[in-house]
C-alpha cells in the first residue's frame, strides 16, 4: 500500500490539508501523475479535486511560471 491517504485511513482528501496536497504537486506546482504520486485511483481523483479547490480558495498556488 503506497497511497498516503489510504495509509492514514482517510476516505476523502481534505482541500485544507495543504501539506498532503503539496506532496502530490511537482516543483512547478502541477499535479503529478498517479505513477508518481503513488495514490490509488480513488484518491488520485479526489486529490486532484482537492488541489483545484485549494487553489480556488487561495491555499495553493496555481502553476508557477
Ligand atoms: Zn488511496
Task: Give a written overview of the molecule.
- The protein contains four helices and no strands.
- The chain has 65 residues and is mainly α.
- It has one domain: Irregular (30s Ribosomal Protein S18).
- The mean pLDDT is 92.
- It binds zinc ion.
- Zinc ion binds next to helix 1 and helix 4.
Brief sketch in words of this structure:
This protein has helices at residues 4-7, 18-22, 34-37, 41-56.
Largest sheet: none
The first-level CATH class is given as Few Secondary Structures
Average pLDDT level: 92
CATH architecture annotation: Irregular
List strands and helices in order, with pairings.
Elements: H1 4-7, H2 18-22, H3 34-37, H4 41-56
Bound molecules: zinc ion (ZN).
Keywords:
binds zinc ion; globular; 30s Ribosomal Protein S18; mainly alpha; 65 residues
Amino acid at each position: 500500500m503506497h497511497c498516503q491517504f489510504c495509509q492514514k485511513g482517510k476516505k476523502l482528501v481534505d482541500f485544507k490539508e495543504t501539506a498532503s496536497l503539496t506532496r502530490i504537486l511537482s516543483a512547478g506546482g502541477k499535479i503529478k501523475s498517479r505513477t508518481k504520486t503513488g495514490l490509488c485511483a480513488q484518491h488520485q481523483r479526489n486529490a486532484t479535486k482537492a488541489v483545484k479547490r485549494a487553489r480556488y480558495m487561495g491555499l495553493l498556488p496555481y502553476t508557477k511560471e
